Amino acid sequence: MSTEPQFDLDRPWRLDDRVAVRPEPFGALLYHFGTRRLSFLKNATVLTVVQSLAEHPTARSACTAAGVGDRALPAYRRALATLAESQMIKERA
Amino acid sequence: MTTDTLPAQTAKVPRLVEQFEQGLAAPICLTWELTYACNLACVHCLSSSGRRDPRELTTAECKEVIDTLERMQVFYVNIGGGEPTVRPDFWELVDYATAHHVGVKFSTNGIKIDSEVAQRLAGSDYVDVQISLDGATAEVNDAVRGAGSYATALRAMANLKAAGFRGFKLSVVITRHNVGQLDDFKALADSYGAQLRLTRLRPSGRGADTWHELHPTAEQQRQLYDWLVARGEQVLTGDSFFHLAPYGGALTGLNLCGAGRVVCLIDPVGDVYACPFAIHEEFLAGSVRQPGGFAAVWRDAELFAELRSPTSGGACQSCQFFDSCRGGCMAAKFFTGLPLDGPDPECVQGYGARALQTVDTSATPRPALDHSHRGAGHGKPVPVSIGPRPVGPPQMPARECDENPLAGLVRPGASGPPEAPGRIGPLIQRT
User: Fold this and answer.
1) What secondary structure does DSSP assign to B357-404, as a single string?
2) A87, CA 20 to 30 Å: which among B5, B41, B50, B279?
3) Which three-class secondary structure state does DSSP give residue B343?
4) pTM of the entire structure?
5) ipTM of the predicted structure?
6) Between B6, B16, B422, which is nearest A26 by CB?
């Protein structure tokens, strides 16, 4: 089975500068101009999380502020891990 | 509001693919043919290119289109032709697009990719290049694309490699004569640091005249499918081959016809068609020159509203594989004279081949426009007689490709393979 991806919810994160976000009825499209890859965000909450990462001290607090509860958090952590892996989001210094 | 249940469990939202069938706020994959002018006369040219159309969009009009695309957040355009680089303002338009946050991937036969151009291209993150080549040998390629075209393409590839441009695309239209060269294409791409892209031959443009001789046989289609499954991990397909899914499961990609939903074409005179393979008034949605421009066409065109509304599946509805192929390619059906709600001409169940036998070929739709070169030696099909070579056995499942924006999506339908865990989560989907 798949292993749990690495992602530190307690670090500060942000969208990569080369990523554009296009809201859509289903959530959003993300496009990275450097890697030329697209990702699809599948709901509005994950979009809110991603767009607000830079304003929060940690990814966890961005999730909380977007209304992500404890039970849903692992799914959001996985989503963020995937976005980090594809360089859509990056850790802030 | 708290989101304390997983979105996948709430299941209130329609599946992504179903939402795509209803269309998006803007296209994901927009093809823009900048000119019908071309130095070549490929026998399968999907836009019947050759001569420049005097009504071609001006530089200023092209920039207006780019402004619109920027506002609509169309992240990138696939620029083609014709041979787009023969437009005198080509580089100006590329620079304008990238300065306005519209990335460019352009298709070329390589004619203008000298070492200076290659160095310039290698320096830009926002420009990608796709070199067209339809044979892994000059013999096979030049029979379709014309004498000298193999050498031109390889020279361009050598220049790109020398300039340090990694990962440009080597784009191949699969035919009866090159389907045996898949391993050779892969090796060729690898040797230039390029990524291989394979797409489907459509009976569009001059392809309408040559499709019957050039399209892969049923046996070759199976070979192609098996090769993609075994070796296609790093091979792009532009979501071309979803009609082959009934062979044993979806290949990577959207596996539905994106025409007018997530895909469309702007032609050199600004006409907007549902897809690049459907240059015919039947699929003409409007023009960027009309009030409201491209945005209004995408949003309001009656044709697009129709394409985004639910379809019945027609004669294919009762087929057990309908969920995996969705009836195949609209353009392929149309230009071979088959009904749009029936089987694809290359239906792997053989329904298309049977249906083709009953088609009155004198009455099949003709491409609306023909910009082919006039006169001897131009635009005439070249007889080709090169046999295929066998390909290897399947070994492992295909993986996502990263070129088509829709790649990585699962096919619709409950009977399909489950969404791959770890790769496609409930919250995001990656290409």
Assistant:
1) TTS-GGGSPPPS---PPPSTTSSPPPP--------PPP-S-----SSS
2) B5
3) coil
4) 0.84
5) 0.83
6) B16
Q: Which of A83, A26, A73, A25 is nearest to A51 (CA)?
A: A83
Q: Are β-strands B169-174 and B127-132 bridged in parallel, bridged antiparallel, or unpaired?
A: parallel
Helices (H), chain A: 44-52, 59-65, 73-85
What residue has token string 């620029």? B79
Is A76 in CB contact (< 8 Å) with chain B? Answer: yes
Any residues with CB less than 8 A from the CB of A6 and at least 6 apart, and which? Answer: A81
| Segment holding A14, helix H or strand E | strand A13-15
pLDDT digit string, tens, across residues B236-279: 988 789 899 899 877 766 667 889 999 999 999 999 999 999 99
Gyration radius of chain A over CA positions: 12
For residue A25, give both structure tokens: 């009825």
Number of neighbours of residue A93 by Cβ within 10 angstroms: 5
Our CA angle for A16, A22, A24, nearest 5°, is 140
Phi, psi of B375 (to 5 degrees): 100, 175
Return the DSSP state at B51: S
Sign of CA dihedral B136, B140, B143, B148: positive
Q: Search chain B and give the residue with CA nearest A76.
A: B427
**Terminal CA-CA length for chain A:** 33
φ, ψ at B39 (rounded to 5°): -80, -15
Put simply, the answer to whether B430 touches A37 (Cβ < 8 Å) is: yes
- Nearest of A57, A71, A77 to residue A9 by alpha carbon: A77
Interface A–B counts its CB contacts (< 8 A) at 110
Band (A36; pLDDT cuts 50, 70, 90): confident
Q: How far is CA B125 from CA A87, B68, B424, in A?
A: 15, 22, 27
